[in-house]
Amino acid sequence: MALEIRSTPVLTGEDAERFVREAEENERNPQRRKLLFSFEDIDRMMERSQKYLKEHGGKGPFAK
Predict the structure, then answer these.
(1) DSSP letter (8 states) at residue 51
(2) Cα gap 10→4, rounded to integer Å
(3) How many Cβ atoms are within 10 Å of 54's Cβ, its own excluded?
(4) For site-directed labelling of 53, which of 4, 31, 39, 64 has its Cα 20 to 30 A away?
(5) Helix/strand/coil percent split, the chain, to 5
(6) Measured between alpha carbons, how far is 63 from 50 in angstroms, rounded to an integer?
């Protein structure tokens, strides 16, 4: 059974102009966000999680 080929939506008019303007602005002035956690923080969280699971027979804190 074949899947139907859907048409790709195309922006036109004012919507297209606004999209291009905003894309160009974002390219000129990217807004970089600082990560909430460092990779070291995530590694420590994973280690604690794995240690907990090992100590509790593979069951999470909310398991019945």
Answers:
(1) H
(2) 18
(3) 9
(4) 39
(5) 50, 0, 50
(6) 15
pLDDT tens for the chain, residues 1 to 64: 677 888 888 999 999 999 999 999 999 998 888 888 899 999 999 999 999 999 999 888 887 7
Length in residues, the chain: 64
User: For residue 1, what are its two tokens?
Assistant: 């059974």
47, amino acid identity? E
Report the C-alpha gap between 53 and 60 in whole angstroms: 6
| C-alpha dihedral, 50 to 55 to 58 to 60, nearest 10° | -80
Under a CB-based contact definition with an 8 Å cutoff, are residues 62 and 53 in contact? no
The answer to whether the beta carbons of residues 11 and 19 sit under 8 Å apart is yes
Tokens describing residue 6: 């859907």
